[in-house]
Fold this sequence. Notes:
By secondary structure, the protein is mainly alpha-helical. It is 57% helix and 6% strand. Residues 155-172, 184-191, 199-205 and 207-212 have low confidence and may be disordered. β2 and β3 form a beta hairpin. It has helices spanning 3-10, 13-40, 48-71, 80-108, 118-149, and strands spanning 170-174, 199-203, 210-211. The chain is built from 5 helices and 3 strands, in the order αααααβββ. The two termini are 52 Å apart. α3 packs antiparallel against α4 (80-108).
Amino acid sequence: MSIIDSVRRVLPPKYRQFAKFLVVGGTTWIIDTGLFFFLKHTVLPDKILTAKIIAILVAMIVNYVLNREWSFNDRGGRERHHEAALFFLLNSIGILVNLAPLGISHYLLGFNAENYTPFTETVADFVSGSLIGTVLAMAFRYWAYQKWVFPELVEEGVEPDEAPVLENELTFNIPPHPHADGHITGADHTAPGTPDGPVAVTRPTGGEPRQR
Length: 212
């Protein structure tokens, strides 16, 4: 049994979806952070926000696939293109939430190469962009996914607060017997007390028919 399966068995059901969301978030966080620092220290050393945007976009695509197929696989119901459009729209807002701490740290507070050593700049970028920004964006995304992208499935025409309907109950309408007036002719007979109208018979799950 894998570690993930072991944790899922221990967690209460209401927390399992959030746990899966965290696993997906951790996976895409590694992709985001690794790609960000790779681009920052190679092809985009002077374009810190551009490197972060590219890293976030790649991680976001992976995030969508994993959340749709695993974290929220029992929710949703929207058409695929509608679902994807909502996902990327809300993640665009999530990108701004993620970038805000990094922009404030790098440009407003001056934690950059002009004022500090490369090591200090890297630490500041990591804390602001990959920790603070990621946590804020993750909280926003989890709320937005549940509310709009992968809403709880509701059967068409049934309100969520309606009482559950008993399953496997069959109702039969039995027409009146032709000799229901109480006269017995040959083998034909009517059981005492049989009403003149249709009789509703229910068949609960696992039981025999009974008369009401």
